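Posting this for the archive.
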Amino acid sequence: MYPTVPNGSLVTIREQATVESGEIAAVLINGNEEAVLKRIKKHGETVFLISDNTNYDPILVTEENPAKIIGKAVRVIKNL
């Protein structure tokens, strides 16, 4: 699947600590060393970070593999 947010796009992020399941968020991973845009999927207490591009595997959020939501993606501007 083609990514919802292609490389080089400008994304507006509304700073907030939580998002609803299915929304795209800016998330800190890898010990707060890397920020990524991922779709949040919640199944009970389990949280996955899902890429719309199927070339990337889902990331399971755990105590050993924590993630911190920076904010919700609210606008994407793509170049043609």
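The mean pLDDT is 93. The first strand starts at residue 10 and ends at 15.
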